Amino acid sequence: MIRIGIVGGRGLSTMRGFLSRPDVCEVTAICDLDEEVMERPKERFGYDVPHKFRVYEDMLAADIDAVVIATPMQNHVQQAIEALHAGKHVMCEVTAGVTMDELWWLKEAVEESGKIYFFAENYCYIPQNQVIRNMVRDGLFGEIYFGEGEYTHNVVSYATYGKGVTGKDTWRRWWQLGKRGCFYPTHSLGPVAQWFGDDHVKSVACFSSGQHVAALEGIYRLDDTTETLCQMESGKLIKLRVDCLSRRPHCMHYYSLQGTQGCYEAPRGMGDDHKVWFASPEHPRDGEWRPLSDFYDQYLPDRYRKASEEQKNSGHWGGDYFIVEDFLNAVLTGQQPELNVYRACEWTAVGLLSELSVTNGGRVIEMPKFRPDTPLSEQITKLW
Ligand SMILES: NC(=O)c1ccc[n+]([C@@H]2O[C@H](COP(=O)([O-])OP(=O)(O)OC[C@H]3O[C@@H](n4cnc5c(N)ncnc54)[C@H](O)[C@@H]3O)[C@@H](O)[C@H]2O)c1
Fold first, then answer.
1. Residue whose CB lies within 8 A of the most ligand 1 atoms, among 75, 93, 324, for a mutation test
2. For the chain, which residues score pLDDT lower than 50?
3. Does residue 265 belong to any structural domain of this protein?
4. Which of 55, 59, 217, 299 is a Cys-bridge partner for 134, taking CB atoms 3.0 to 4.6 Å apart?
5. Which ligand 1 atom is the nearest neighbour of the CA of 172?
6. How many domains does the chain have?
7. CATH code, 281
């Protein structure tokens, strides 16, 4: 029986997944500075978590095997390392950390501990992203060479507790709106990077539109919108738009993909649908858009098709359920998951390097290799 402890309210998104596997796990502990948060499982799921802690270290000292870390971003690495040192497996919210040094500490701590580190990038689990991944695998798009991810989500209202800028600042005021560059890259990058298989980000360049609406909001350092280009080791390209200030409808999961034989575009609203286009064999420049749903029967993973309504409704289009299942499998088998510490560090570093790039006129920054055997001499940030 895997005994789970959850720290931070957002971690409750995993509850439904854990509660649906009473054969292998039990949520035995919860920790939050806010006592009201610890009462939520009872209200939402009819399950009162037996052990409640306000101090994280007290929870780590309790009888648990794994922690779900869902506190603000700047706590992730410290809390993950403490958990690994205490012999616990870790499932951690995005992003993995807030400085490059932290990422190296995290990688080392996971390697030394031998414990599971699971990066909870739930956008990889969006059903359509999984369908596209399987279609890429079967070569439907030919050789893929360009992908895009966009996260447009105005988070200004999350920057203060209560209404208006006179409320007390939340962590987002500093660690999101107080940053330059693409501070939150993993939702946009993760699924697209998975389509590119074993490829890795080789270098990053970030440009911004400056401060227009940011200037109207007055107090933030973040630019209105950022475009980050990831040159892959293969020479292929991924483009990310992350925009948390612009006044516009949210669109947190727009993706596109281009291959030699076809392309994919996610919807951006107004009744648009997920759609794919394939070049006709006779006339490669001709083809018709088709709804992606034409391909669900063949390419939606089995477990999504068989999912109960409850699982599908577990949040982020069912992703919050399947991610838990994969975490449990990793712990049960002792195998590091696909969303392992190396991916967590590389995807997170895209954002951290973008900050350096955007403040240096879009200068190209080399991605260090977050791999098991990277020597200390290469654990550095190089400008091109
Ligand atoms: N994957 C997703 O889709 C998704 C969605 C939202 C947020 N997130 C991530 O989840 C994390 C939390 O975001 P949020 O919006 O829930 O933040 P939040 O500020 O709403 O909640 C953070 C919670 O953590 C608690 N907390 C903070 N420090 C603590 C500590 N030291 N010990 C115990 N509890 C502590 C707070 O009391 C609060 O309940 C962030 O890393 C964010 O990036 C991910």
1. 93
2. none
3. yes
4. 299
5. 19
6. 1
7. 3.30.360.10
